[in-house]
Specification:
Mean pLDDT: 80
Order of helices and strands: HHEHEHEHEEEEHEHHEE
Helix content: 25-40%
CATH architecture of the largest domain: 3-Layer(aba) Sandwich
CATH topology of the largest domain: Rossmann fold
Shape: elongated
Distance between the termini: 18 Å
Number of domains: 2
Oligomer: single chain
Strand content: 15-25%
CATH class of the largest domain: Alpha Beta
Radius of gyration: 21 Å
Largest sheet: 4 strands, antiparallel
């Protein structure tokens, strides 16, 4: 638990002890690499402990510990901040003042989901596609012996597309299955993460093309040798010249945590 609110920490520690939990506490931001060494099952975090680097800290924790149940419990926040945190990899977000029993119940719920996901991953067969070997049991993707070092969200996105190989998945469907809730109008998160995935795939497996765009619809995973010219997927009148595929940029909303 990373939280500088001594009153909340004291009450929560008593509840955690009564539940049979082993609770570790720090009033400051612990380096993410040190959190890895602690082998935690769950982390309750107030990003305010990281100060101005709160967003970067959340991103590093979520990236380095993809199996960790991560719950934010902080003071007043905006919808944009909560949405941004959930998209970075936070599993749940609680606003203070929060009842300790609710905090514990939310941690338990997230931990249960994580355990189910790990069991499903342990039973999953590795997927091979082009140069890629996708390992659901490790949340990792390899080209030969090289790990592509994907974030949890990037892995979940690639794994979903690979499982539906050859099928065109609409953006809304991708968002619902990877992010876990309905996509807001105008949200470009899927396109942004697809672009990031493509960059990593092209860098590590330049001889293959994996993710194909269906303009105005979504994406299809279908490995092809990179030398093959991809068919134009944009709907166009018969006989009209084909337009080149353009990458989609995203404007990221920057918010800082408000001090309490």
């Amino acid at each position: 638990m990373l939280d500088a609110d001594s009153g909340f920490v004291t009450v929560l520690a008593k509840r955690a002890e009564a539940a049979g939990w082993q609770l570790r506490h720090s009033a400051g931001a612990v380096p993410p690499r040190d959190l890895v060494a602690m082998k935690l099952n769950a982390l309750l975090l107030d990003p305010a402990v990281a100060g101005e680097e709160a967003w970067e800290y959340l991103d590093r924790v979520a990236s380095l510990l993809p199996d960790l149940a991560l719950v934010v419990c902080t003071g007043r926040s905006t919808v944009a901040q909560r949405v941004r945190g959930l998209r970075l990899g936070v599993d749940d977000w609680i606003t203070k003042p929060a009842h300790p029993e609710e905090a514990i119940a939310r941690i338990e719920a997230v931990s249960r989901r994580r355990r189910r996901a790990r069991r499903d991953g342990d039973d999953a067969t590795p997927l091979a596609a082009g140069d890629l070997k996708i390992r659901p049991d490790r949340f990792q993707v390899f080209v030969g012996e090289v790990n592509l070092d994907l974030t949890r969200r990037e892995f979940e996105l690639l794994h979903l597309l690979a499982e539906e190989r050859g099928q065109v998945l609409e953006r809304e469907t991708i968002y619902q299955r990877v992010w876990g809730y309905a996509m807001a109008h105008g949200d470009r998160s899927v396109d942004v993460f697809i672009r990031k995935l493509r960059q990593k795939l092209e860098k590590n497996s330049p001889h293959w093309s994996y993710i194909h765009t269906h303009f105005g619809i979504g994406y299809r995973f279908d490995p092809e040798p990179a030398g093959i010219v991809e068919e134009e997927l944009r709907p166009a009148p018969e006989g009209a010249p084909k337009a080149p595929d353009k990458s989609i940029s995203s404007q990221v909303v920057h918010n800082s945590f408000t001090s309490r």
